[in-house]
Please model this.
Amino acid sequence: MEIRVKSLKFDADQKLLDYVEKKVSKLSRFSDHLDGMEVTLSLLKEPDNKNVRIQTRAYGQDLVIERNSTSFEDAVSAAVDLMKEKIVRTKEKKFDA
Model:
């Protein structure tokens, strides 16, 4: 599965990029129908100013999760957990219909 990581308004270091790829790559275990992953890391002007957006396409639907936190690692972890649930729900709906 192809994982594309973009950072907006800052330059992400290699350690953060490796962490993102490691966490996001685990999502491929939940479906063979994922059309790559696009991860966007950005800084906001809010207290929880680290924003992570994970976007993919599975079973003909666009799946998007966005999370904010005080650290990118926490935001990535929370977003991956929510994306896992969303993938599983979408898969169940597809095969229950």
